[in-house]
Amino acid sequence: TTMNERVYKMVQRRTRRVDAIFTAGTKDGKKIRLKLIFMLGDRVNTSIKKAARAEATRLIEEAASNDSFENFMKDIISGKTGEDIRKDLSKVYPCADAEVRMSEILE
To answer: What is the pLDDT of residues 83-97, one digit of tens each?
Structure first.
């Protein structure tokens, strides 16, 4: 399926889609722009969305800075990164799903 169809299936009734776009640097000096999408369990206000987005950004930056470019991309492709983000975001607010939907190399 294409990414649009996949996102459409992820966003269900009474869930909130939150997008996060940020730049992360890997251990070997490569810069990557990542676009993350995650679903929060229920209708939420802006402060919870901001807190979840900030936590996701912190987690991705931490994971990228501790890993080489190749290993980090393997984790993204395998879905390990999205699963780790989902587990940690559930501490802020119940998170139904999290996924890196796009990545691009800046350098």
So the answer is: 999 999 998 899 888
